[in-house]
Specification:
5-stranded antiparallel beta sheet, 22% helix
């Protein structure tokens, strides 16, 4: 048995933090396009070890740090996914006058998942219906996009079992696809589990099927955004112009060759 009281001593990396992980991002959370949900921190852990762990304190400390992994920790304000460089801050441990436990303070370097409202995440679609899209981010975090948070451009196809864009036939979302979405809020549950509630908003570029976004580029964030159809139309137009230019060059080359051959024939005669 161990009681753990932990807090971060210093934080770095991972972009700007806004709000609380459990709070709602509201209808329009501040967009953090370049922010990463992965952060590194040096944390101070106050671990209370049972006497049975005192034969090997280092092992006892590691076992209890392992028990913190992949569960939301309110004191760390994130989900620990990895750790290193464990340092005991005292050679002796204070025994509680009320409980038969030994207090061992340690410093540890931790990698945390800290998804925030306004961040863009990528998840793999695991299930869907005409009312929601269910995803898994980082092969661990459960995410959900409800119908009210899916932009009107997408409609659910019962026959195709997918969400299809009305502005581009090539843009669809099916089970197994990787989707970039906006984090609206992070809901906490018992046992350290969390659910990411996301959206596919109309005013945010780069959201939707990752393969489509890679192929055609992301829309511009803001009021003058380009729809998927506009992007496709632009690319088709560009290809057409290139094709016409090549045809023209080929025709000019052919005419030049024919003139040269006529001139040679005329000189011979």
């Amino acid at each position: 048995m161990a009681l753990v009281d932990s807090h971060a001593m210093s934080k770095h990396g991972g972009g700007q933090r806004q709000g609380n992980a459990s709070g709602s991002g509201g209808k329009n959370p501040s967009i953090m396009l370049d922010a990463s949900p992965i952060e590194k921190t040096r944390a101070l852990l106050h671990i209370h070890l049972h006497p049975s762990s005192l034969l090997d304190v280092h092992l006892g400390v590691e076992e209890h740090i392992n028990s913190l992994l992949l569960r939301y920790n309110e004191n760390l304000d994130g989900i620990p996914v990895a750790y290193s460089d464990v340092k005991r801050l005292s050679k002796t441990g204070a025994v509680s006058p009320y409980f038969p436990l030994c207090h061992v303070p340690v410093s540890v370097s931790m990698t945390l998942l800290r998804p925030r409202p306004g961040m863009l995440l990528v998840g793999k679609v695991t299930e869907m219906s005409d009312t929601f899209i269910g995803l898994l981010a980082f092969d661990y975090l459960n995410c959900v996009i409800q119908i009210g948070s899916i932009r009107p451009d997408f409609t659910y196809s019962v026959f195709g079992q997918c969400w299809k864009s009305q502005s581009s036939n090539e843009h669809s979302i099916s089970v197994g696809d990787r989707v970039r979405f906006l984090v609206e809020r992070v809901d906490k549950h018992g046992g350290g589990y969390v659910t990411i509630v996301g959206s596919l908003p109309a005013g945010v570029g780069g959201t939707g099927n990752v393969e489509f976004v890679k192929k055609y580029g992301s829309a511009v964030v803001g009021s003058k955004k380009r729809r998927g159809s506009d992007v496709v139309e632009s690319m088709v137009s560009e290809k057409r112009l290139k094709g016409e230019k090549k045809k023209k060059q080929k025709k000019e080359k052919k005419e030049k060759k024919e003139k040269k051959e006529k001139k040679k024939k005329k000189e011979k005669s």
